[in-house]
């Protein structure tokens, strides 16, 4: 199982930006980013497939969030711009060697390795 170390969360004002990092100890093909707000279910927000650099985004973050991978560092990133208070949540990265991002969203069961989560708070 791949070990994942997340970083980059914090407190930011509405309209601000944050970049989350997800450093992996081993190889993987797809990364998914999930978030869970207090009292809500965990939801998938972005996905990246390494073989073709295809991506998927939830409607709630489309055109504001960007998912990417730096293969040299074996690290995935989630660039979050124009942040809103409703983006406040614990964000988790997850990876899998076999999964391919599709246009149908993300399911937790599609990913075999998970990060510990990092808190993102958007507030003035």
**Which structural class do you get from the secondary structure elements?**
mainly beta
Largest sheet: 7 strands, mixed
Distance between the termini: 39 Å
Please estimate the helix content.
under 10%
Q: Which stretches are poorly predicted, pLDDT < 50 over at least 5 residues?
A: none
| Pattern of helices and strands | EEEEEEEEEEE
What Rg is obtained from the alpha carbons, in whole angstroms?
A: 13 Å
Shape: globular
Number of helices: 0
Q: Quaternary status of these chains? A: single chain
The average pLDDT value, as a whole number, equals: 95
- Indicate the proportion of strand residues: over 45%
For the secondary structure, the number of strands is 11
Topology:
Elements: E1 4-7, E2 10-12, E3 18-24, E4 30-36, E5 43-49, E6 54-57, E7 65-70, E8 75-80, E9 89-96, E10 113-114, E11 118-122
Parallel strand pairs: 2-11
Antiparallel strand pairs: 1-3, 3-8, 4-5, 4-9, 5-6, 7-8, 9-10, 9-11
Based on the model shown, name its key terms:
4-stranded antiparallel beta sheet; single chain; 0% helix; 124 residues; globular; 11 strands; mainly beta; 7-stranded mixed beta sheet
Provide structural commentary.
By secondary structure, this protein is an all-beta fold. The chain is 0% helix and 48% strand. The protein is built from no helices and eleven strands. It has strands at 4-7, 10-12, 18-24, 30-36, 43-49, 54-57, 65-70, 75-80, 89-96, 113-114, 118-122. The strands form two sheets. Strands 2, 4, 5, 6, 9, 10 and 11 form a seven-stranded mixed β-sheet that branches. It starts with a strand and ends with a strand. The relative contact order is 0.33. The model has no long low-confidence stretch (mean pLDDT 95).
């Amino acid at each position: 199982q791949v070990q994942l170390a997340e970083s980059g969360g914090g407190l930011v004002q509405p309209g601000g930006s944050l970049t989350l990092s997800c450093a992996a100890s081993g190889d993987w093909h797809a990364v998914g980013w999930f978030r869970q707000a207090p009292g809500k279910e965990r939801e998938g927000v972005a996905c990246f497939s390494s073989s073709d650099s295809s991506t998927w985004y939830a409607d709630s973050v489309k055109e504001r969030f960007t998912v990417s991978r730096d293969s040299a560092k074996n690290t995935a990133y989630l660039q979050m711009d124009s942040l809103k208070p409703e983006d406040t949540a614990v964000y988790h990265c997850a990876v899998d060697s076999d999964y391919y991002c599709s246009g149908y969203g993300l399911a937790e069961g599609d990913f075999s390795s998970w990060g510990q989560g990092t808190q993102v708070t958007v507030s003035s």
